[in-house]
Amino acid sequence: MQAEVHAIDHPLIQHKLTLMRKAETSTAKFRTLLKEISLLLAYEVTRDLPLKTEQIDTPIASTNAPMLAPDKKLVIVSILRAGQGILDGMLELMPSARVGHIGLYRDPKTLTAIEYYFKVPDEVEKRDVLIVDPMLATGNSAIAAVDRLKAINPNSLKFVCLLAAPEGIKHFHSQHPDVPIYTAAIDDRLDEHGYIVPGLGDAGDRLFGTR
Ligand code: URA
Fold it and tell me: How far is the CA of 151 from the centre of ligand 1 (A)?
């Protein structure tokens, strides 16, 4: 199986991402930019959503028109806490999506992902799931999230991030070659602390104004 990586290099995304990367960008601006980029990513990630036709009446005529299949509501699973930034943007475009959360933190020494929270909507097994987390760094959190979700057997899974490190992509696809990655950019490498270089720093801290 050819593992899929979609780098969504739309000029608007690239411009906004550069603004996010700048160290001097404020928390408020960072949040707004992440939301805006998430809307643009959502557009690309949902390109293959199934449609049904419905008979409707326009003011002029009756017609069969496409609608999203009502029984196929998406589930967006946010990896806490930075995933919330992408979730907010995606929900603006898809307000009926169901939402799940996975709380994972990185052990600072081993960089492994440790779960502290898990809650997803019922009937995930019938649904298409988008897992969102801005940074695909070592890949450990993304792998842990997919491991957990695969155990409930969703209809499909996609992983959506803002930045990916080549090491993270490789590690993730060594475990889950069937899960496509959608990212706004693929950066150079990871540093010795597991940060993406050049990256944008700690996405959660920049989003929430913590340190
Ligand atoms: N998580 C972040 O927030 N930033 C990185 O560079 C890597 C992981």
Answer: 26
